[in-house]
Specification:
alpha/beta, single chain, seven-stranded parallel beta sheet, 41% helix
């Protein structure tokens, strides 16, 4: 039985881990033995263990949101030192046919892997554009060990080439497990609309835009409530969270907005919602958009990053000029006032996900890149 090593810094139910879960399921079905280096035990890693994976826990592999650039670099260096030590002392004696890295930020620690192991890097984010000099430096080091990059959207693929990546970049869309995400045909029918937004408490996810939009909708006299999921993420900006709380009080939205606790199943959030608002400023793909569309939700988002590859304007939702709050509020208002429009856009969204973002099909396409599967 051949074995594959996976390095994964992400924790919790987020897009990169959902994608990785599909990859692991596909590998296990192909009779691969899977070993994963993961930050710490959570429901995701427990699921991998139940599937039969071998897990090595490495807490310092976890990414942390740090505003101070120097401190961020120090955390990264410390994390890579720990990873290098783990690879040399615990992993190097094991025999792996391939290595998959579920992030683009690791660099010199990869030299702890045996030279004969082909390395594939999955890139889920566009954050490497924030500091292009540093990212270019990291990619130049990676090129010594990386065989191919796998980008989750064309936006990511194009950005990688623009920043100077010298290896082949393949595009494999993220996807949704359509067996798990099924819309409810018996949609609630009442006068109050439920809006849903999936935002983490960091500035680029755009919660400040969301609050401004909700404030405008309230001023229009529209009746609605809004659920916010993902807010209690372990990677957060405390100053930003306090800023948003103050903004909510300022606009009198404290009885309108309901923050969902981490244990609430996302599928139930989608089922109870009528419209998905996605105010992100920087999105490589927009996994929540694909999930929402799979559940027949019309979506409203800014036209940034990989989002226009997911959402089709006036067909599955509305794409607005960044960061036109007035236009976003008017688009949401139009959906609030028209049940037929919500139904049509939601239906078309589900069809689009079935055609383009079927997790099982996309993972099969990715695994085909490994020589064994051709």
């Amino acid at each position: 039985m051949s074995s594959i090593l996976i390095l994964n810094p992400w924790t919790g139910k987020i897009g990169p881990n959902t994608f990785l879960n599909g990859v692991v399921s596909g590998l296990l079905k192909k009779n691969y033995q899977v070993t994963i280096i993961y930050p710490y035990a959570d429901e995701i890693s427990n699921g991998f263990e139940q599937m039969g994976c071998r897990i090595f826990y490495l807490p310092n592999l976890k990414f942390k949101h740090v505003n101070n650039f120097i401190l961020k670099i120090c955390f990264r260096i410390y994390g890579e030192l720990n990873l290098l030590y783990c690879l040399v002392t615990k992993i190097r004696s094991l025999d792996f046919k391939y290595c998959i890295i579920n992030t683009e930020v690791l660099s010199w620690s990869l030299f702890g892997l045996k030279k004969k192991i082909p390395v594939y890097v999955i890139v889920h984010a566009l954050s490497f554009n924030e500091n292009k000099r540093l990212s270019s430096f990291i990619f130049n080091i990676q090129h010594i060990r990386v065989l191919k990059y796998l980008a989750v959207s064309n936006a990511v693929k194009d950005a990688l080439y623009k920043i100077g990546v010298k290896r082949e970049v393949l595009m494999i869309y993220n996807g949704v497990d359509l067996d798990q995400y099924k819309p409810n045909s018996l949609k609630k029918d009442n006068n109050e609309i439920t809006l849903l937004s999936v935002v983490h408490p960091v500035p680029h996810k755009g919660a400040h835009h969301l609050i401004d939009v909700l404030g405008l909708l309230k001023n229009m006299g529209l009746k609605f409530n809004c659920k916010i999921a993902g807010w209690y993420n372990k990677s957060f900006d405390k100053y930003y969270m306090n800023l948003i709380n103050d903004k909510i009080l300022e606009k009198g939205l404290e009885n309108t907005i309901h923050f969902q606790q981490p244990g609430v199943d996302m599928k139930s959030n989608y089922l109870s919602a009528d419209i998905l608002i996605h105010p992100s400023e920087n999105e490589s793909f927009g996994y929540a958009l694909a999930e929402g569309m799979a559940m027949n939700l019309p979506v409203v988002a800014f036209n940034v990053g990989g989002i226009p590859e997911v959402v089709k304007h006036n067909k599955t939702g509305f794409l607005l000029e960044p960061y036109n709050i007035q236009a976003m509020a008017l688009a949401v208002a139009e959906l609030i006032q028209s049940k037929s429009l919500r139904s049509e856009l939601g239906h078309q969204g589900r069809l689009r996900v079935e055609q383009k973002f079927n997790m099982k099909k996309n993972i099969e396409n990715m695994l085909y890149e490994f020589d064994d599967f051709k």
